[in-house]
Amino acid sequence: MANSPRHLFFSTPKGGMSDLAIHPFLRHPGALAIAHRGGSLEAEENTMAAFAHAVALGYSHVELDVHATCDGTIVIHHDPDLTRICADPRRIAELDLPTLRGVRTRAGAQIPLLADVLNAYPRLHLTIEMKSDAVVAPLCKLLDRMQVLDRVCLGAFAPARTAAARKLLGARLLWSPAHGQVARLWARGWGLPLPLALFQVVQIPVTWKGIPVLTRRFVRAAHDAGVKVQVWTVNDRPEMERLLDLGVDGIMTDRPEALRDVLRARGQWPLAGEQQHHDSGIEQIGRHQNEDMPDRKMVAQPRPEIKRNP
């Protein structure tokens, strides 16, 4: 991969990020609306149908999860195996791409390739969670080859995965830290001047194991350090309102229609470029649906009883 300049971002006196070089992913007026897994309470999660639904609503950002097949293809799926979504107990890491392409979800959709979504929506921004160690290297190679680092943000619950991605992609990569850096930022809200790594955004839950994480104090500490605050996964409208009032910079939701309606009522919708996103992707997504599913619709019915995993 091409070497990238290390001076793009630099530490502020408080140890956070300068606003001199805000990553393009984060250049957005107001709070970002992010469709979690494409909006998994309104369409089948992590499918082309879900991403098409989010784009049709005007979303410019979606969140998704990735694994690698045994032959190194990056596919979009949350779990390591196919049981919950496809009623198939096999693990993605043990299947090659031709085998996986023959698998269908419970609603009849194929497991999408990350490259297909990137190609179908050339202006869509993706928060990508790396779900395994094996996915990191082929994912970074794909993102570098497709030249899409201006519209992706990588994260993982395992800090080693993010560290590996940063080593491969350098300062061009936007990444969200795991719990260690988040804890440091939280402590800074209480006056502890702990140093921070150079990151521009945190993606956090409201609480973690019963401990409040997202507080007004945390938001203030993050903003003082030049760090944006995005929250997952919020499906309750009053909670969306409360978090927006706290000044968060983004909300991930399984209910993209609900979040759109909340933002619309606050005069923060449509998002910038809404029609562009809709026009750029909807025809291509229809083509993918027709190729993959000639006799079936891919749009699933809402499944409100499904328990959400991180």
Give an overview of the whole structure.
This protein is an alpha/beta fold and 310 residues long. The protein has a single domain (19-292), classed as TIM Barrel (Alpha-Beta Barrel). The chain contains 11 helices and 13 strands. It has helices at residues 48-57, 83-86, 97-101, 114-120, 136-146, 159-169, 179-188, 216-224, 237-246, 256-265, 274-292, and strands at residues 32-36, 61-68, 74-76, 81-82, 88-91, 125-130, 152-155, 174-175, 201-205, 207-208, 211-212, 228-232, 250-253. Strands 1, 2, 3, 6, 7, 8, 9, 12 and 13 form a 9-stranded mixed sheet that branches. Helix 5 (136-146) links the parallel strand 6 (125-130) and strand 7 (152-155). Helix 5 runs parallel beside helix 6. The radius of gyration is 19 Å and the shape is globular. The two termini are 31 Å apart.
Order of helices and strands: EHEEEHEHHEHEHEHEEEHEHEHH
Overall number of structural domains: 1
First-last Cα distance: 31 Å
For the report, how would you describe the main beta sheet? Answer: 9 strands, mixed
Helix percent reads 25-40%
| Dominant shape | globular
Quickly list its features.
single chain; 310 residues; alpha/beta; TIM Barrel; 9-stranded mixed beta sheet; two-stranded antiparallel sheet; 11 helices; 34% helix; globular
Briefly summarize what is shown.
This protein is of the alpha/beta class and 310 residues long. The chain has helices at residues 48-57, 83-86, 97-101, 114-120, 136-146, 159-169, 179-188, 216-224, 237-246, 256-265, 274-292, and strands at residues 32-36, 61-68, 74-76, 81-82, 88-91, 125-130, 152-155, 174-175, 201-205, 207-208, 211-212, 228-232, 250-253.
